[in-house]
Amino acid sequence: MSDGLFFSLILGFFFIVWLAGGGPHRPISFAGPFITPITTVGDVQSAYGPNLSGKISAGGVTVGTNVPSNVGSDDIPNTSPYAGRISLAHFVSGIGDPNPAHEYLTLTSLPSATGSIDITGWKLVSVKTGVGVSLPQGATMLTLGPVQISPIQLQPGGTVTITSGYSPVNVSYEQSVCTSYLPNASNYQLCFSRHAGEPGYLTGNWQVFLNQNHTLWQKSDTIELVDENGRVVDSFAY
Fold first, then answer.
1. Dihedral, CA atoms, 94, 95, 99, 105, nearest 10 degrees?
2. Could you tell me the CA-to-CA distances from 176 to 30, 139, 142 in Å, in that order?
3. Helix, strand, or coil here: 153?
4. Does 72 reside within a domain?
5. Domain boundaries, position 137
6. Less Cβ around it within 10 Å: N or C end of the chain?
7. Beta-carbon neighbour count of residue 160 at 10 Å?
8. Cα distance between residue 140 and residue 191, in whole Å
9. Would you state the pLDDT for residue 104?
10. For the residues 116-129, what does the mean pLDDT come to?
11. Is the dihedral of CA 176, 177, 179, 184 positive or negative?
12. In this structure, is residue 38 part of a structural domain?
């Protein structure tokens, strides 16, 4: 018997077995832990579980993990409802500089955020050391002499520059068109008296001081911004 004839007989034998087992109507075994089995030729593969949509916003950074569309930030463990509305700039200036006045980072209320957000009492926490420092109150209208302080209300699009060191005017404050004159008290007071009542005098940006006599952030760390309930608003590693 030639090799060609023998090979043809083998193929014929398996063809008969295939027809006896159901032929083209036999289920295809594509079942597995991630896709549903196809029970009829022409069926479409689909993922197990509910139909998923949306994305998690973790620490202000949108990542590609899908969640059910009815899941809110309150359902994500230890994530603040403010996540995605307030964002830390992912850098620290002054790392390695021993002067806490030169160490700072910033946070921003995204322009898409709705309404003002009270950030007083929120904390910046070092994951490496566990040290946490609270954000203080501040002065909206900074005057020379006694000032009125209140919780810091950050408006959409507003930024906060957070310096580890001490405030040169003994208080955190909202920046204004006169802020650049602060090193000279008389010039600042003159600018204030002329422009304080004008529209646009306040910029919506804040200068916040943590009043530390030492630097806070190490050369390699993860910093978390947590809200008043200890839930993570944003974080970054560097």
1. 50
2. 65, 11, 9
3. strand
4. no
5. 78-237
6. N
7. 24
8. 16
9. 96
10. 95
11. negative
12. no
d(C-alpha 43, C-alpha 5), whole Å:
37
Q: What band does 217 get if pLDDT is binned at 50, 70 and 90?
A: very high
Judge whether 179 lies within some domain: yes
Residue 199, domain CATH? 2.60.40.1260
CB 57 within 8 A of CB 204: no
Helix (H) or strand (E) holding 150: strand 149-150
> Among 96, 211, 106, 222, which residue's Cα sits nearest to residue 164?
211
Q: Is 173 left (phi over 0), alpha (psi -120 to 50) or beta?
A: beta
Answer yes or no: are the C-beta atoms of 151 and 182 closer than 8 Å.
no
For the chain, how many structural domains are there in total? 1
Of 108, 107, 58, 106, nearest in space to 78 by CA: 58
In 10 A of CB 220, how many CB atoms? Answer: 9
Distance CA 146, CA 137 (A): 15
pTM: 0.67
> 110 near 154, Cβ under 8 Å?
no
Residue 236 pLDDT greater than 80, yes or no: yes
Tell me the pLDDT band of 45, cut-offs 50, 70 and 90: very low
pLDDT tens, 76-110?
Answer: 568 999 999 999 999 999 988 999 999 999 999 99
Residue 20: inside a domain: no
Written as six digits, the tokens of 34 are 């991630």
Q: Region 53-62: what's the mean pLDDT?
A: 32
